[in-house]
Amino acid sequence: MYRVSPHFRHFARALVGGAAAATLWVNIDPESYYDVLEYRLWAPTLPDWIGRPDPVLTLQFIVSEGLMALMIAFIAKELWEALVLERGALAGATRRVVPLGAVVGGVIGAVLVWLLALPADPDVMALGRAAGWPLPIGSDVVLCYVFGVWVFGKAHPALHLLLLISIAFDILGLIGLGLAFPTEGLHPAWLSLTALALIAVWIFAARLARPEATELQHRRAGSLWPYLLAGFLSWTGVLLAGLPGALGLLPLVPLVPHAERSFGLFAEAEEFLHDPLNRLAQLLVRPLPVVLFLFGLTRGGIDLSALGPMTGRVLAALWLGKPLGLAIGAFVAVVLWRGKLPAGLQIHDILLIALLSGSGFTVPLLALDSGLPGGLIAEQARAGVALSLLFGPLALGLSRLVPRARRRADNENSP
Predict the structure, then answer these.
(1) Tens of pLDDT, residues 129-160
(2) Which of 94, 264, 316, 339 could, after both became Cys, cross-link 333 (CB 3.0–4.6 A)?
(3) Who contacts 379 (Cβ-Cβ below 8 Å, separation ≥6)?
């Protein structure tokens, strides 16, 4: 089993540290906390032809719409490599069936319970059933990894599957958020800027990485500047189109030349690879802890007095709909689509993965402010997202009970 990069543990500490600091701050002095979040760092005036309202750059906006694009690109790179590389975790149709069934089932279960579990609260009912429906789709790759290590250990193949499913949930949650609740409306014409940037970087850089290319062409394809420039233009087009800025670098990932084989998700061995995609990822591992700390600080402050009807709705979707849908989807994939569980996995491992998927944080918090109005309802939902992390310790406790039950059954059946 490959070794996951130690940087991932730093990500988790930074995210939790930022959220803990924000929670203390918002409960001790909420006025100063929100003053800092909403402080206008810059309010540029855009030309009329852009067709968008003038932005107000606050710390929260910069982190959520800008810096978090780096994190989403970082995890999307791993999913892309799992799909296309030799020995990738999802290389080949048979390897994709169970993860695909689990993800589809989890999305359907989370959204279905969200739509059905409408609290009998006038303020919540006034929003309608569909308000905020992408919120429970998202997961948290970093914290799911930490919980997965607790439950399965560092060398268990279930940890690999958990990471894949969590990445897919995060990307689908953001895409659903952007399509259903665009900021200031959708302006798809701006996606042409993204498309032009991708076409240009393919023509002048990425396609030159083919094996038969000359040494000069390989050097041009290996330079990182074309991809950095294309990434900035892609992010700009996505943001101006009204989609979440966190998705801005996602279209670029498939175009960047990558290694010939996979060493596993977030594998430590990738630090020694020199293809452009892995070099870009290596550039991100140092600033990402700062990004995640700032995200926890700006989005993770939990008002402990804000429990309410929306809290229960969030927990119902994350704790009931999503795990149940994931488990059913995985079983359907095995029984009807004749998918095979990854080597070393058993049915109870899928159930534990389903429980861990009920823990959400980063992407649900990103979806919260766009999918729901601010104020008390948003704070109730934020409290529900934070409480969903209790499913990690619960899964740990259940994982300890399974071996005991198995040993007891073996002893009873032994002569």
Answers:
(1) 999 999 999 999 999 999 999 898 887 888 88
(2) 339
(3) 303, 306
